[in-house]
Amino acid sequence: xxxxxxxRAQTLSKPELLAWGKQSLxxxxxxxxxxxxxxxxxxxxxITAIEHNGRRGLIVAEQDxxxxxxxxxxxxxxxxxxxxxxxxxxxxxxxxxxxALRGALGAGRALGCKEVDFFGQIRPHDGVVSYRVExxxxxxxxxxxxxxxxxxxSVDGEAIYTVRDAKVGIYPGIQYxxxxxxxxxxxxxVLNK
Length: 193
Hints:
By secondary structure, the protein is α+β, with helices and mostly antiparallel strands. It has one domain (about 5-170): Roll (Thiol Ester Dehydrase, Chain A). The chain contains four helices and seven strands; from the N terminus they run ααββααβββββ. It has helices at about 5-10, 15-20, 70-75, 85-100, and strands at about 45-55, 55-65, 105-110, 115-120, 130-140, 145-155, 160-170. Strands 1, 2, 3, 4, 5, 6 and 7 form a seven-stranded antiparallel β-sheet that branches.
């Protein structure tokens, strides 16, 4: 798809999400679009709504639950449940996507959240997990972007987690594109020292 079509997207399919993860979705990007993880870390199968309203917005996604999902095999062998931290990561993934869809270029990084409440769980025989992220503030700055939002994770229509004040930043020039070679970006540490 063209970069103009990418910025206007209101939904995204699984093949489009996978192409994004491989950096092959957009043919004419003016720079590096923030990456999406590939499976198994990609936590949704489709984006069903993307809305922009000034500094605010909305992004909604869904994940189909499969009996043999990788996390059920190890968490826990006698009591399979999707780790709640994966739902939190999904909220961060969606916020990074939102920045990219607003034109941010660089690499996305989760910057934290203020509050996470778990009051339910995702089991192997559940059907669909829904992620709804209300973007409370998006700011595009020279050299990056930041977004703050509140997320709700639901399973089969029932809310089971909330994440408040989740924050993601987009940073240019920190991508580690020559992995596994040692290079300027091959070590971690504090961002923007």
